[in-house]
Specification:
Elements (H helix, E strand, L loop, with lengths): L2 H9 L2 H29 L5 H30 L1
Length: about 80
Amino acid sequence: MTASQLAMARVFSGRILKNSVIVALIVGTILNGINQGDVILAGGAMNVWKVVLTYAVPFFVASYGAYNAMKQRDSMQS
């Protein structure tokens, strides 16, 4: 298994996955409040794609950061 495959397997399991989900929930909620707060307060319908992307982007950023850190660490150890 290459360093990239090993890092990817670790990123999407266990503690790192949990941390990425927590980051996505916190950051996504804040960004949804900023981006669609007026719609929420007015009781209007939120744009579903904006909601999905607003949570997905911080999830993938946190996951990518963990992936890069693990990949670098693994390549330094070999």
